[in-house]
């Protein structure tokens, strides 16, 4: 999320046509094309953040600037050359790191929260408990996960929450 990414196309000699077909999970399809015989590029319904890495006649790679949730989806490159037709497909998954937080609620119970992550984070406690995490989905595809520590034993003074996510892990301890 927020980074730039480059998707490469098969480089072959004597390329006559290169086409990128983009099918995002949200929104409409987009295509970028380049014909070598006319030195002509064409684009249909692509946002400004999706473009050739360099000039199409120099580099067939696709660059996505400031990757966001809207760019998640399938990206297919088709190359036509004298050697034949070649395809390369990518599935772009956008990771949104959650905002972790550990606090004590009004009853003095430790609460661990991983807000607005994509995909949903996994929360666990260092000492086993029988809590059941709650998930709340948001309109933009992110998920907030909340877990209240419910230990069987009450003679603990400090509790540690761990948040696991593909974009990075986090842990913190608290005494309520």
Automatic annotation (TrEMBL):
- Entries under Pfam families matching the protein: V-set (PF07686)
What sequence ranges are listed for the domain Ig-like?
1-93
Q: Which organism does this sequence originate in? A: Sakesphorus luctuosus
Which keywords annotate this record? Answer: Disulfide bond, Glycoprotein, Membrane, Transmembrane, Transmembrane helix
Organism lineage string: Eukaryota, Metazoa, Chordata, Craniata, Vertebrata
* Record family assignment: Belongs to the CD200R family.
Q: For this UniProt entry, what is the primary localization, expressed as one broad class?
A: membrane
Subcellular location(s): the record lists: Membrane
Gene Ontology annotations of biological process type: regulation of neuroinflammatory response
Keyword Magnesium (UniProt): no
GO cellular component assignments:
external side of plasma membrane
Q: Give the protein's recorded name.
A: MOR1A protein
Q: How does it sit in the membrane?
A: Single-pass membrane protein
